[in-house]
Amino acid sequence: MLLEKIRESENILISSHVNPDGDSIGSGLALYTAITKNFPGKKVRFIIEDDIPYDLKFLRNSDKIEKYIEVDNVPEVDLMITCDSATFKRIGRVVNFRKDAFLVNIDHHISNDLYGNLDIVEDKSSACEIMYDVIKNKLKIEIDEEIGESLYTGIVTDTGSFKYESTSKQTFEIAGKLIDAGIDRDKIINSVYKSKSIGRMKVLGIAISKMNIIDDKKFVYFTLSDYFVQTEGIKKDDTEGIVEQLLEYEGCEVALFLKEEPNGKMKGSLRSKKEVDVNEVASLFDGGGHKRASGFTTKMEEKDIILRILESI
């Protein structure tokens, strides 16, 4: 059905969730590249709410990704495809471009509410693992080194370099096939993991030194104040990966990274090792994601958030 829809559509819009990461950018960019290279004449645009994280700008065609606020003259969209977004509203203001377009939802979150006209949703390690099958088997497109680079980036980042529980035998098999396609693993790893900005180093430093430890609950958390963000010039993507660092503490089962937003809300990222389903915990704040990795945004204050989480876990 997806192949048929692409063939009959003239204007195609791809989008992914706000606060983009390696999987959202990688899955969307792989699909963008696949369609533009194999369906000549189609007008394809990849539009997102926020800036591309600096450590993902090495990906080829990343310069073709457009930011919502900078977009002019969007044509009537025939087909809209969302990648790595558990709800439609998670793509931010890009929802405004849909209108009457046929909507395809490609995602791997167990909390996905199946909002598309066509839902390609599976409980996999990453959206990029699903996208591999979509491109290769549903669209019948050969995955070359250029497409593979985006897919591998999404898989390696969303599995924590193949450490997370969601990593399966199939995940490794697909990664191996992408290596066979000729991707440069060293370039990907160096760009994603070994090119941290000074802002990210500052956030990591204060998070580790100031983290709160609740021993009897095996719970660790840290709250990044908006004051620190503003005075130190911290960017959005400087806070990526901090919660995973907190989870590495040996006495920790659940880690929480809270970030004060300028609008007064709190953005939370939850991770767990093996005993706690943080998707259920995040649902207390109308959030969600996966059993071991979830997130939420709430108007509640820090002390109330922590109290509710402690009661839950």
Number of helices: 11
Strand order, main sheet: write it out. Answer: 3-2-1-4-5-6
CATH fold-level label of the largest domain: inorganic pyrophosphatase (n-terminal core)
> In total, how many beta strands?
12
Query: Quaternary status of these chains?
Result: single chain
Largest sheet: 6 strands, parallel
CATH superfamily of the largest domain: inorganic pyrophosphatase (n-terminal core)
Secondary-structure-based class equals alpha/beta
CATH class of the largest domain: Alpha Beta
* Second CATH tier, the architecture of the largest domain: Alpha-Beta Complex
What's the overall geometry? globular
Number of domain units = 2
**What does the radius of gyration come to?**
19 Å
Strand content is 15-25%
Helix % is 25-40%
> How far is the first residue's CA from the last residue's CA?
42 Å
**Unreliable parts:** none
Brief rundown of the structure:
The protein has 313 residues and is an alpha/beta fold. It contains eleven helices and twelve strands.
Describe the overall structure.
With 313 residues, the chain is an alpha/beta fold. The protein folds into two domains: 2-193, inorganic pyrophosphatase (n-terminal core), CATH 3.90.1640.10; 198-312, Diaminopimelate Epimerase, Chain A, domain 1 (Roll), CATH 3.10.310. The chain is 36% helix and 19% strand. The protein has eleven helices and twelve strands. The chain has helices at residues 2-8, 22-38, 127-138, 145-158, 169-180, 185-193, 198-210, 226-232, 242-247, 278-283, 302-312, and strands at 11-16, 43-48, 66-67, 79-83, 102-107, 118-121, 212-214, 219-224, 254-260, 266-272, 288-289, 293-298. Strands 3-2-1-4-5-6 form a six-stranded parallel sheet, covered by helices on one side. A six-stranded mixed sheet has the order 7-8-9-10-12-11. Strand 11 (288-289) and strand 12 form a beta hairpin. Helix 2 (22-38) packs parallel to helix 3 (127-138), helix 2 (22-38) packs antiparallel against helix 4 and helix 4 (145-158) packs antiparallel against helix 5. It starts with a helix and ends with a helix.
